[in-house]
């Protein structure tokens, strides 16, 4: 195989059969010798915030002697970003080598079951085998979609299970209500594990309390009252959390403080389990942590901020953060979304903040029609234009935008990744 063939296997739509259990994933892992059983995990699920929370935790662990694997999705620029050890992407050579080994077992499973495995199932197996053979001390494992039936849930009880947020996304697969989605994500809670969640109220809180009780797991829920913002700008945020004073993070947006608090609690849980983490490693790790494409300031002249917000909850957070950080400011929004999203409802959330909308499709097959969306926006009274490709956005930023203009790119991590690659490389 070459790297193009690896990408074609693990980053394209394949697979069939409705996933009603994890039997075929268990069968695949059995054939590979169950490498997941040789690893310790921090398992992360949630509608939004999984990547940044994972980045905070990984950065904290990097301040220790623990060899740390990190499995996340999607990627921004290269697929190797999804599998890292101590913040280093898996090399093309290793990716090819481990894919070739996994493919042999994939072929056996597919022949036995007369079903095709999904790409994410194969990628998960590659990552777990790689982490095991590289003898990682800890693996931070991010779910793809949901939790209960996610291929990452093939692992046994993690050291810590994390739920970052609950929102309405992937409803065709997870359910039509927040409660349905919460039950799916609560599926990563296993017997005797430590569980840390975002702040939840009402029925959602009860779902996780009930699941934790059933599994005899300890549950800790972040309390927003424990977080105190000291200062915030496009350079980062200074805040306090419980007994931790003068904590600094580079990532902007109020929601990142909750993600950072979850990471702190994960570190404390590991301390209580005997892992060698100090309070200083927590502070240093938070300050060094970075996760591209999430309220990331790419340029300052003009200011260009990219954000991966692509669902109702994400866009609501983007709107809140912009209003908090830049009161009375109007923005140029570059937006590209998949056509199966309720994109007009999401765009309306930030409509009153817009000087201009520039629409662009993030994907030629699955993305919305940019000109149709721009036309709809104009009919609703907004100033809007469309771009046929991302190079037109680059030209606007570099040659047409005014110096005091603020440009916000959102709607799809694919769009964010492509613009980031073109602007920074």
- Biggest sheet features: 8 strands, mixed
Number of domains: 2
Strand order of the largest sheet: 4-3-2-5-1-6-7-8
The overall strand count is 17
Global structural class: alpha/beta
Mean pLDDT over all positions: 92
Enumerate the spans where pLDDT stays under 50 for 5 or more consecutive residues: none
CATH superfamily of the largest domain: Mur-like, catalytic domain
Strand content: 15-25%
Q: What is the terminal separation in angstroms?
A: 28 Å
CATH class call of the largest domain: Alpha Beta
| CATH level 3 topology of the largest domain | UDP-N-acetylmuramoyl-L-alanine:D-glutamate ligase
General form: globular
- Name the CATH architecture of the largest domain: 3-Layer(aba) Sandwich
Q: Helicity, in percent?
A: 40-55%
Radius of gyration: 21 Å
Query: What is the tally of helical segments?
Result: 15
């Amino acid at each position: 195989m070459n790297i193009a063939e690896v990408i074609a296997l693990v980053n394209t739509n394949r697979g069939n059969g409705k996933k009603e259990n994890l039997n075929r994933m268990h069968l695949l892992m059995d054939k590979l010798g169950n490498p997941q059983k040789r690893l310790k995990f921090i398992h992360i699920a949630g509608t939004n915030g999984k990547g940044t929370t994972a980045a905070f935790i990984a950065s904290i662990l990097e301040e220790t002697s623990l060899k740390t694997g990190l499995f996340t999705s999607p990627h921004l620029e290269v697929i190797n970003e999804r599998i890292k050890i101590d913040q280093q992407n898996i090399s093309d050579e290793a990716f090819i080598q481990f894919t070739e080994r996994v493919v042999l077992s994939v072929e056996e499973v597919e022949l036995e079951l007369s079903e095709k495995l999904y790409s994410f199932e194969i990628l998960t197996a590659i990552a777990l085998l790689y982490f095991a053979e590289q003898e990682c001390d800890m693996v931070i494992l991010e779910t793809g979609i949901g939790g209960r039936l996610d291929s990452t849930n093939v692992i046994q009880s993690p050291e810590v299970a994390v739920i970052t947020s609950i929102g309405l996304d992937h409803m065709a697969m997870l359910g039509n209500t927040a409660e349905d989605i919460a039950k799916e994500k609560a599926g990563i809670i296993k017997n005797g594990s430590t569980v840390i969640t975002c702040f939840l109220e009402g029925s959602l809180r009860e779902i996780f309390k009930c699941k934790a009780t059933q599994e005899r797991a300890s549950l800790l829920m972040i309390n927003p009252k424990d977080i105190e913002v000291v200062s915030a700008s496009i350079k980062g945020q200074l805040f306090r959390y419980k007994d931790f004073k003068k904590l600094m993070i580079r990532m902007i947006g109020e929601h990142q403080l909750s993600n950072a608090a979850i990471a702190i609690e994960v570190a404390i849980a590991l301390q209580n389990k005997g892992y060698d983490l100090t309070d200083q490693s927590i502070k240093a790790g938070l300050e060094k942590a970075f996760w591209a494409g999430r309220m990331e300031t790419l340029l300052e002249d003009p200011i260009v901020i990219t954000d991966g917000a692509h669902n109702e909850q994400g866009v609501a957070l983007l709107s809140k953060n912009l209003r908090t950080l830049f009161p009375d400011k109007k923005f140029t929004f570059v937006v590209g979304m998949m056509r199966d999203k309720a994109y007009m409802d999401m765009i309306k959330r930030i409509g009153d903040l817009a000087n201009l909308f520039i629409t662009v499709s993030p994907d030629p097959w699955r993305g919305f029609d940019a000109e149709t969306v721009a036309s709809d926006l104009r009919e609703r009274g907004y100033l809007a234009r469309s771009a046929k490709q991302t190079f037109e956005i680059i030209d606007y930023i570099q040659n047409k935008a005014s110096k005091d203009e603020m440009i916000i790119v959102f709607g799809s991590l694919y769009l964010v990744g492509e613009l980031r690659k073109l602007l920074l490389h």
